[in-house]
Amino acid sequence: MNPTTTALAAPAYLKRPVWGHWPAALGLAAATFQIVTGVATDAVALTVTVAASCYLAAAALGLRWIAWANILVGSIVAILSELAGAPWWLGLAVFAAVLVVVGLLRRTPVRPLSAEGLAMIGFGGLAVAAVLISPRLGLALAGVALASHAAWDYVHWRRDAVVPRSMAEFCIALDVVFGAAAITLAIIG
């Protein structure tokens, strides 16, 4: 094989057929839906917190596919928390703690469990702070947290680790677009 040809070859993800990019298309559709229905601090903060919990669930349970299922599970936890009279973020914090305990009981490898646990604390902490401060600054902070989560998604996509690549690709599209919209609205609002 000619080294020059190899160096110029397109990356595998660019060689996929158009329908092979469904995760990015789904992420863009989800971001568009969120933007059209209204960009609120709570919605942006909830999105980044549920996203972080998806990665934590996959690491704790040692099942990459569980990240997709956790979109629904994390959303249900948030809804049930609100129905019980507690803030959504408190329910997701308890859920995250349970996931960590389950991971420890399962003897999940320490590195992914601790990395995803710390990411949950970091992104979740920014989300909670965003909800508790002034609306405009909170929206900007939530947007920055969500957009920066895209870098976390990219690391996972690149390494093909913890979650399926399709999930990381979906999240990149969602996080960048919805996060940028929140930042933009906070600035011009």
Entry summary:
By secondary structure, this protein is an all-alpha fold.
What does this structure look like?
The mean pLDDT is 93. The protein starts with a helix and ends with a helix. The chain is built from nine helices and no strands. The protein is globular, with a radius of gyration of 17 Å. Helix 4 packs parallel to helix 6 and helix 7 packs antiparallel against helix 8. By secondary structure, the protein is mainly α.
Termini gap: 56 Å
Can you count the beta strands?
Answer: 0
Helix share bin: over 70%
Please summarize the sheet with the most strands: none
Radius of gyration: 17 Å
Shape: globular
Number of helices: 9
Q: Which structural class do you get from the secondary structure elements?
A: mainly alpha
Low-confidence stretches: none
Strand percentage lies at: under 5%
Helix-strand sequence: HHHHHHHHH
Mean pLDDT: 93
Keywords:
single chain, 189 residues, mainly alpha, 9 helices
Map the helices and strands.
Layout (H helix, E strand, L loop, with lengths): L2 H6 L3 H4 L6 H16 L3 H21 L4 H18 L4 H18 L4 H23 L2 H25 L5 H24 L1
Helix pairs in contact: 3-9, 4-5, 4-6, 4-7, 4-8, 4-9, 5-6, 6-7, 7-8, 8-9
